[in-house]
Amino acid sequence: MSSFTVKHHTVSRQGTRRSLLLFGLNLGLTLAACSPQAAASDSVTLDFARAEHEAGRVILIDLREPNEHATGVAKGAQLLPMRQLGARLSEIPTASDKPVLLICNTQNRSSSTLAALRERGYAHVRYVQGGMSEWTRRGWPLVRP
Question: Residue 48: in which H helix or E strand, if any?
């Protein structure tokens, strides 16, 4: 019997159809989280995020993983890898007096995280369009964590 890997799981031919359906569902959810149909209030532009962060008017949370942080982060960003979010949720301010901006590499993780945080009542959180890959592409300053 032959097998292949889908999302780091080995699947036999018998499980192929079910796995492909689940893969399609996961892909659909990911694409929906990143679709242009998301409310305009869910995201901010990279230019806005940088200006507000550097002025100290927002909290910028970098959701990338430690190996990604090692390539450079925005100075003063709070480092909170997405996979640690459940254990470190208390580090995201619940008060709405200072907006929280989520940034990842391309906005996939940050937009998905936004949806989860909104379900928990975090109305003052937004995600940054373009993410750190666009920040880097523009040559904006980075520091080592």
Answer: helix 46-54
- Rg (the chain; Cα; Å): 17
Who contacts 76 (Cβ-Cβ below 8 Å, separation ≥6)?
A: 53, 60
Amino acid at 39: A
Cβ atoms < 10 Å from Cβ of 123: 10
Q: What does the pLDDT look like over 12-56, one tens digit per residue?
A: 444 444 443 334 334 333 444 444 445 668 999 999 999 999 999
Task: Report which residue type is found at 118.
Answer: R
**CA distance linking residue 143 with residue 145, whole number of Å:** 6
- pLDDT per position as a tens digit, 49-67: 999 999 999 999 999 999 9
C-alpha to C-alpha distance for 113 and 103, rounded to whole angstroms = 10
